[in-house]
Amino acid sequence: MDTLFAAKNWSNQKLIEIAFYISVVAGLVLSQCLFFNNPLFADDMRLAKATLAPVGINQESIKNKILNEISPEIRENNFNEYIKRKYPNSLIKTVAKGIKHIKMTRYYDGRPVKINVVEVDLKLADNFEIKPALSSTSNNLKSRKTITTIAKNNDSIVAINGTYFKPQTGVP
């Protein structure tokens, strides 16, 4: 079975019908200017020519957001304030510009749990990258290196154990 593509033969009656529908729709759209006081174009609007009342936009907030994106000093100050607010009563150490190491103690079932957190602002720490690292370069998953050793081998300034390894075997 073949597929054929043929040009449609439009009859005069069909063309007249389509032209009629288009003229009806155009007439309805354009008639709003005559029958309703709802102009079609912005130039005709009295509101567009008049001064508008100020909208409830906090210009100071917008200014601060723009300065935060443009100025590294302001961004760094905002980042430092954010960390202090987020982690009160914690030991906060600046590792590098835009990188903070936070040490805190929380209690779980009455027992202390030491927590280490690393917060990074990638726009401030633009000379650094976040990348995964394995304890071995081969496919051998039984390599048993400490996080410190892995960090030194990769010239890292911060290392996070991102998964669980069984301490006895070193296998994930």
TrEMBL record:
Keyword Transmembrane helix attributed: yes
Keyword terms, alphabetized: Membrane, Transmembrane, Transmembrane helix
Transmembrane residue ranges: 18-36
Protein name as annotated: Uncharacterized protein
Species annotation: Candidatus Scatousia excrementipullorum
